[in-house]
Amino acid sequence: MTYENLDRKLVNALLVDGRASLRSLGEELDVSVTTVSNHISDLEEEGIIRGYTPVVDYGKLGYDVTAIIQLKVEGSALPEITDRLAEHKHMVSVYEVTGDHDVVAIGKFTDTDHMNDQIKELLIDPDIKESNTSVVLNTVVENEQFELDY
């Protein structure tokens, strides 16, 4: 087999089963276990594969409220605010964005009181000029990754 597109095929196989053995990946892709191992190591070293983690259904664990928090931030404070949000236990995503707001963060909370308490703690920062919080009513799709084209 040629190794053309092997890395993309390997990533796609891992998206289907991140716990697949090197042997099964080698069989699926028609390459040796050593080749699979070397390519996975390279993908990890390059930061393309950043780790292996379970996909957790937070709702089934009692985190029934998902909030989308939009913030306008004093320009020079943006890195500090995004770092603080990224370290916040209940934030699952933090983005610097263009448009009316500077930051969009997505958090998971047990209920609206919990959400309210956590957001109020964030908003005491004087560098946050404005905030807008939306509560998700229905999650249609979440944490989806897509197969790579090759």
Set down the secondary structure blueprint.
Elements: H1 6-16, H2 22-29, H3 33-45, E1 65-73, H4 78-87, E2 91-96, E3 103-109, H5 112-123, E4 128-135
Antiparallel strand pairs: 1-3, 1-4, 2-3
Helix pairs in contact: 2-3
Broad structural category: alpha+beta
Mean pLDDT: 94
**Shape verdict:** elongated
Distance between the termini: 15 Å
Q: Briefly note the CATH topology name of the largest domain.
A: Alpha-Beta Plaits
Question: What's the tally of helices?
Answer: 5
Number of domain units: 2
Q: SSE order, as H and E?
A: HHHEHEEHE
Helix content: 25-40%
Question: What are the low-pLDDT stretches, counting only 5+ consecutive residues below 50?
Answer: none
**Please, what is the CATH homologous superfamily of the largest domain?**
Lrp/AsnC effector binding domain/regulation of amino acid metabolism (RAM) domain
Percentage of β-strand residues: 15-25%
Main β-sheet, spatial strand arrangement = 2-3-1-4
Give a structural overview:
With 150 residues, this protein is α+β, with helices and mostly antiparallel strands. The chain is 36% helix and 20% strand. It has helices spanning 6-16, 22-29, 33-45, 78-87, 112-123; strands at 65-73, 91-96, 103-109, 128-135. The chain has a 4-stranded antiparallel beta sheet with strand order 2-3-1-4. Strand 2 (91-96) and strand 3 (103-109) form a beta hairpin. The longest helix is centred in the N-terminal third of the chain and has 13 residues, at 33-45. The protein is elongated and about 55 Å long. The protein starts with 5 loop residues before the first helix and ends in a 15-residue tail after the last strand.
